[in-house]
Amino acid sequence: MLSCPWAKCLEEIGSNPRLLALGQFLWKKNPKGLSEWTIDLDKLKQQVWGDEVTPTSTVRSLVSDFRKHLEAHNVPLTISVHDTRDKRRVRCTLPKDFKFDLS
């Protein structure tokens, strides 16, 4: 199993349940440790907020807060939220040369 590249960040945000749920869910949805992966936006909303009707602007705001924590720990994860009729997803990308530990 691959170690989460932002495990230290998760420790730091542990007191914020939504940020923690977001960070854990993003990595859980990448079991093979790929540099790019996609998550269904509604599944993310369900996991983090407990519903699928949370506004996408709220998701984007939480993602922005999460990215600030990642940047502080030098984790170059790009997270993009897409919410159109045919594309309701969250795309995560790490640089191909980004190394993280295997355990």
Provide key terms for this protein.
three-stranded antiparallel beta sheet; 17% strand; 3 strands; Arc Repressor Mutant, subunit A; 43% helix; single chain; alpha+beta; 103 residues
Strand content: 15-25%
Q: Which CATH architecture would you pick?
A: Orthogonal Bundle
- Unreliable parts: none
CATH class: Mainly Alpha
Give, in order, the helices and strands. Answer: HHEHHEE
Number of contiguous helices: 4
Shape: globular
CATH topology: Arc Repressor Mutant, subunit A
Strand order, sheet with most strands: 1-3-2
**Total number of domains:** 1
- Class by helix and strand content? alpha+beta
What does the largest sheet look like?
A: 3 strands, antiparallel
Distance between the termini: 6 Å
* Helix content range: 40-55%
How many beta-strand runs? 3
> What would you report as the Rg, rounded to the nearest angstrom?
13 Å
Report the mean per-residue pLDDT as an integer: 91
Q: What's a quick, concise take on this entry?
A:
With 103 residues, the chain is an alpha+beta fold. It is 43% helix and 17% strand.
Write the layout of secondary structure elements.
Elements: H1 7-12, H2 17-28, E1 36-40, H3 41-49, H4 56-72, E2 78-83, E3 88-93
Antiparallel strand pairs: 1-3, 2-3
What does this protein structure show overall?
The chain has 103 residues and is α+β, with helices and mostly antiparallel strands. The chain has one domain: Arc Repressor Mutant, subunit A (Orthogonal Bundle), CATH 1.10.10. It has four helices and three strands; from the N terminus they run H-H-E-H-H-E-E. The protein has helices spanning 7-12, 17-28, 41-49, 56-72, and strands at residues 36-40, 78-83, 88-93. The mean pLDDT is 91.
